[in-house]
Design goal:
43% of the residues lie in helices and 18% in strands. By secondary structure, the protein is of the alpha/beta class. It folds into 2 domains: 22-146, Rossmann fold; 168-378, Alpha-Beta Barrel (TIM Barrel), CATH 3.20.20.450. Helix 7 packs parallel to helix 8.
């Protein structure tokens, strides 16, 4: 959304930042908003105009702003208090206080409470307005540039150990069994990442590191390499569930190349995609899903019931397996509400030609309840922990 937002307007959702920079202008005098807003628009800015602090806060929940210019005397919430709140919302957006009478106490309060960038004294002169805005935005650019430089220097220092972790023999896949209702022998295994690197002692630390250094695809290559080793050892009637990092879906061609290395075991590989991350935030994920379908690789949706994706996304994924999140499974024997939800998920799975796997089982009573609710497969510490030995 671009252009001027007038007082009384209602914004429903957060919009993407326009190519033109937006300035929040707050003053209860319409003539001030008209004159100052017009001057700013003549310099190519989009003006987000509000007559009160309350209206301004509604606007900034819906749209980003580069800089805020706020009058000191506002109804209900004064300008310094509003600028303090805006600092919490957008710490790097400069804050300019407008006032007709700037005394020492007001100036001290504005600096201490709102950490303002500058002040403008009414009546507002165009030269003073443009100089103040230009200085504030220039200082912001310098600050962000310095922070970005520090961040890049830090990443350069930290990138070496991450690459070492991916290239060496530090990563392994532990297998956790998945059972049918008989619970005698596993029908499948889920491959779970484990790390022996001294700086990345668990899977979450590895995942955070590869995300920060944009090495998710390199981790995917490593996981496929390790999965090939397990597939060569597993009995030919066992499936192997492999977790896919959601960001791997942003490059369908690279994902397809990676997964073709598993074609030798076609029909025995299942790709797990977590529901904890919204697929809407990933560009062109549908093409990656088509790639999986073209290679005949079925999908399992992990963490079902604990994530962000809608039923329409599940329909697009067309999963072969649904994995009920452990938050639903734990103590389900003691919760009629959880039992009804599991029954509903089982019916949903069957209506879409899928099967439900209940994960996170830790008690015998949960097993019996899950069987009675219609779960198709069972997984959890009570049945088998992740291991490097499947015999």
């Amino acid at each position: 959304m671009s252009g001027r937002i007038v007082a009384g307007g209602t914004l429903v959702r957060k919009t993407q930042r326009s190519e033109r920079r937006s300035i929040l202008l707050v003053d209860d005098e319409p003539s001030i908003r008209q004159v100052v807003g017009g001057l700013l628009e003549s310099r190519g800015f989009d003006v987000l105009s509000a007559e009160s602090g309350e209206e301004a806060l509604k606007i900034v929940t819906a749209q980003d702003f580069e800089l805020a210019i706020v009058d000191y005397r506002l109804p209900a919430m004064d300008g310094i208090r509003l600028l303090h709140v805006l600092r919490e919302i957008s710490p790097f957006a400069p804050r300019i206080l407008m006032t007709a009478h700037l005394d020492l106490n007001t100036a001290v309060e504005a600096v201490n409470m709102a950490q303002i960038s500058n002040t403008l004294t009414k009546p507002i002169m165009p030269e003073a307005l443009f100089r103040c805005v230009d200085e504030a935005l220039a200082n912001k650019a310098l600050l962000l540039g310095a922070q970005d430089k520090q961040r890049r220097q830090r990443l350069d220092r930290e990138r070496g150990p991450v690459l070492e972790c991916l290239a060496g023999n530090f990563l392994r896949l532990a297998l956790q069994p998945i059972f049918d209702l008989g619970c005698q022998t596993p029908v499948a295994y889920e491959a779970l990442l484990r790390s022996g690197h001294p700086e990345f002692t668990g899977p979450l630390s590895v995942l955070r590191a590869v995300e920060e250094h944009e090495l998710v695809h390199e981790l995917g290559d490593k996981v496929v390499e390790l999965a090939r080793g397990w597939l060569a050892q597993l009995p030919t009637d066992k499936l192997l569930f492999i977790n896919l990092h959601p960001l791997e879906l942003d490059d369908a061609e690279r994902l397809g190349t990676r997964l073709r290395r598993l074609q030798e075991w076609s029909g025995r590989v299942v790709i797990e995609i977590t529901e904890r991350q919204s697929l809407d935030s990933i560009d062109d994920w549908e093409s990656a899903i088509e790639t999986l379908a073209d290679q005949g690789i079925p999908i399992a949706v992990d963490d079902l019931g604990a994530g962000y994706n809608s039923l329409s996304v599940l329909a697009d994924l067309q999963p072969r397996f649904l994995k009920a999140d452990m938050s639903i499974v734990r103590a389900c024997n003691e919760s009629p509400r959880k039992q009804r939800l599991i029954e509903l998920l089982c019916r949903f799975a069957e209506s879409t030609s899928a099967e439900l796997i209940a994960e996170g089982i830790e008690a015998d009573a949960e097993i019996e309840t899950l069987k009675s609710c219609g779960a198709h497969y069972l997984q959890g510490y009570r049945l088998g922990r992740p291991s490097f030995d499947i015999h």
